[in-house]
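One-letter codes give the sequence; the fold follows as tokens. An example follows:
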Amino acid sequence: MGSSRSDSQSSSLISSLFSIVGLLAGAAVVADGSREPEVPCYFIFGDSLFDPGNNNNLNTTMKANYPPYGVDFPSGVATGRYSNGRTTADIIGELLGFESFIPPFASAPNNSEILVGVNYASGSAGLLLETGKFMVN
């Protein structure tokens, strides 16, 4: 039993470290005012903290494409993000100089947009052992 709790604590610590690193990376980037992005592409992997709507068309109960989600998003509608507005990945993308949000993989329209970046994050992706264990059908 002690090992299981230790594994859980280790997973939580690793998840927290990834979040902190992501926030620090976003805070360290300062847009210089040019229209060119700081990097050529931006690929995002994660769970519900970064999901931009990849779960919308999946056969899962883990969805966020209904009110009140999205009430503070620029369009004012729920996009599938697990937040009222932008996610940390969206904010980092803006700081990197991207003019639009990185699209979810599920709706990336064409190859040229995929070359700019794609968001593969999915709510209940299971990055932690505890993720979704109560959502099993």
